[in-house]
Amino acid sequence: MLKTVFRSEDLPARERLAALDDIWVDSVHPMRVAGDTPQDLRATLRTLELAAVDVAEVTLSYCQVLRTPRLIRRADPELCSVIVPVAGTLVLGQAGRETRLDTRHLALYDSSQPFRIQLAADGGTARAVRAHIPRALLGVPLPSDGLGRLLARPLPARTGFGGLLAQFLADLTADTAGYRPHDLPRLGLLAQDLLTSVVAHHLDEDGPLPDGPRHRTLLLSIETFIRQHLGDPQLSPETVAAAHHVSTSYLHRLFRTRETTVAAWIRQQRLEHARRDLTDPALHGVPIHQIAARWGFKDHATFTRAFRSAYGAAPKDYRLGPAPGLFPAGRTAMA
Questions:
Q1: Quick check: pTM over 0.70?
Q2: From CA 273, how far away is CA 254, in angstroms rounded?
Q3: What are the CA-CA distances from residue 58 to residues 89, 252, 289 (Å)?
Q4: CB-based contact 93:87 (threshold 8 Å)
Q5: C-beta of residue 53 within 8 angstroms of C-beta of residue 192
Q6: How many CB atoms are closer than 10 A to CB 315?
Q7: Is CB count within 10 Å lower at the N or C end of the chain?
Q8: What are the chain's domains?
Q9: What is the reported pLDDT for 333?
Q10: Structural contact between residues 54 and 131, judged by C-beta atoms closer than 8 angstroms
Q11: What is d(CA 154, CA 102) in angstroms, rounded to the nearest whole number?
Q12: With DSSP H G I counted as helix, E B as strand and the rest as coil, what are the percentages for the chain, rounded to 5?
């Protein structure tokens, strides 16, 4: 399913650079290619269309790929792009930054701003995989400066979401024999989700919180998710963050508006549900350890300590009825 659209060995040496330039300058994302010794160009370009996501593998000897203001005015599909070196090095320049990349890193760039990509920066040849996705399809709200603070920055390509995306793209361009044509849209959705996750993760690290309505909607969604999964002993800030495609640091910053921590809020909700069960006459015969397990507490001793700290009495005593001097039922379970 990978389509080879250019091979330098198919053309006379003197025609290679011009032929590759023609392919890129006439694309929906116009670029130019330039080199000091056109006759020495060695290049292979293979492409794979995954619905809205366009993937390409390029192998090039030393040259530069340029997108100029004039080319942007000519056509701008408003793409967010990622480039992942597979072998060799490249240099990406955009938004006033320039970064050298090897196989340890990937980088983002934007079709709406001029950029320069220098391939095989250390000589020889370089091989890279790049993917384009329309910015409108990114499943993450972009801040007012768009992708600006992420462009041409080296992002990890061996760990986290970056590692998953880099491996996914490398595997795709290495071998597509295991896929059928009707699998391509599904692969496109996977690529879209992974690229969105990379963008969201790195925007979350140091970006501002979403504006009012989005902030409240996301927080309410997270709180609903927590309430629905209180019985899962594996529920944690990490699992909550992963379910909502945000980083744990961003999740913690969201909960600062509640003047509590994520873990404390989960514990408070578990304790409050357990307290209600303990005072429910219909559940009087249910052992306390079962009530604790029902609300996600892994062991009875941990539950007892947390309950006593929150409500001033052991669960067994509280079930018999609050005694004078004990904390009232509405006391908040503190962090």
A1: no
A2: 23
A3: 13, 40, 60
A4: no
A5: yes
A6: 22
A7: C
A8: 3-206 (2.60.120.10), 212-320 (1.10.10.60)
A9: 43
A10: yes
A11: 9
A12: 45, 20, 35
Cα–Cα dist 288/300, whole Å: 8
How far apart, in whole angstroms, are the C-alpha atoms of residue 89 and residue 98?
13
Question: Of 106, 92, 109, nearest to 163 (Cα)?
Answer: 106
The CA angle 242-248-249, to the nearest 5 degrees, is: 150
Q: Is 124 helix (H, G, I), strand (E, B) or coil?
A: coil
Q: What is the mean pLDDT of residues 136-147?
A: 72
Rounded mean pLDDT, 143-172: 88
Q: Which token pair is 272?
A: 């409050």
Both tokens assigned to 54: 């366009």
Helix axes 248-255, 184-206, angle to 10 degrees: 50
163 contact partners, CB below 8 Å, separation of at least 6: 156, 157
Q: How far apart are CA 86 and CA 104, in angstroms?
A: 9
Amino acid at position 93, single letter: G
pLDDT per residue as tens digits for the range 90-127: 999 999 999 999 999 999 999 999 999 999 878 789 99
Residue whose structure tokens are 């609903």: 224
Taking the alpha carbons at both ends of the chain, their separation in whole angstroms is 55
Residue positions counted in the chain: 335
Identify the DSSP state of 136: G
Q: What is the dihedral of CA 325, 327, 328, 333, to 10 degrees?
A: 180
CA distances from 173 to 87, 107, 208, 291 (A): 13, 18, 36, 52
pLDDT tens-digit map of 237-246: 989 988 887 7
What H or E segment, with its residue span, contains residue 83?
strand 79-87
